């Protein structure tokens, strides 16, 4: 299967032979342009005959400028797009600079002008920046993904700043058109801009936060949706809050819980005291306290029968006192696996783990319980009988038990090694 480098080399060879640029390149893919730039430089040394100045009817020639006596590159006639694209990538900076003079009226080659804005040769770089600064903003947006990739280079900030400025000051639809970009960096930039410019209503921001795949976009839109509610300008506040609360992502749900305080609905945070996410539980406790309710008694009551709300023990451990440890410890043998796992997490939060109480859970059929038990026992791994751990490694044991045994054996050996080193 050909590599991306092979594809780029083939594209250069075909363009040098006269093939049209759009016949050999995916002009919508930023990596195609970057690959072309790299491949031309490589092949200029490996196969110089491909890029020789006499290889085309418009062949370049090197002459002396009569005014400055400096070397100058001229064409016998106007080069075609394919030839000019190769010249814009040529390893000789004089050829790249001369090619830029020919590229001003070639919007099809704007991608290579963007790349040249980060060129290592200052004259080439400055000339490219002059051209890009005169480019209509809508054309800059068409190459947003490439511009952001080039922006990661040491000299790549110019084009990125130009693009960002165009999105911040131009028509709203220019920035909004990039929201659905398949390129992650482009979508992130577009959302940052539309949030800064307050172009989207809170309801749409909430829906985006709940459904978008990108974590940064989720956070950005969730925060903006909550802030918009704080301004009191959205009549659909209830819809916004419910959308955030129903999200699968814990960080978005936590924003929804925080929004309950802004909406004056402090009591509605109570169901989220036992959310599966510790972040959401912490937000729920904060909202209840802001409304004058202490969450600790609520957790104690829930732990009396946590079957329907298994995370109650973890929540009590996160905000309770050491005296609550016995109530949490009693749940280590609860028939519901989620309650057992939550009880171990609660004891860890209270710093009340007893090795003898937690050790039997390494044999638990629930992977979640074994993971919590392993995490709780790691600081005391050398106190777990080795024969027990080796038994968990036996063939036929569930994978989660074998993984736990390996982790604890490694931790025990590390502690033994540390003690021996200290003695030595």
Please provide a written account of the structure.
The protein is mainly α and 424 residues long. Among the domains are: 134 residues, no CATH class; 63 residues, no CATH class. Helix content is 61%, strand content 2%. The protein has 25 helices and 2 strands. A two-stranded antiparallel ribbon has the order 1-2. A hairpin with a 6-residue loop joins strand 1 and strand 2. Helix 4 crosses helix 5, helix 13 packs antiparallel against helix 14 and helix 13 packs parallel to helix 15. The longest helix has 25 residues. It is elongated and about 90 Å long. The two termini are 56 Å apart. About 3% of the residues have low confidence.
Write the H/E string, N to C: HHHEEHHHHHHHHHHHHHHHHHHHHHH
Beginning-to-end CA distance, first to last residue: 56 Å
Q: What is the average of the pLDDT values?
A: 88
Number of helices: 25
Which structural class fits the helix and strand makeup? mainly alpha
Strand order of the largest sheet: 1-2
> Radius of gyration from the CA trace?
32 Å
Label the overall shape: elongated
Total DSSP E strands: 2
Largest sheet: 2 strands, antiparallel
Low-confidence stretches: 53-66
Portion in strands: under 5%
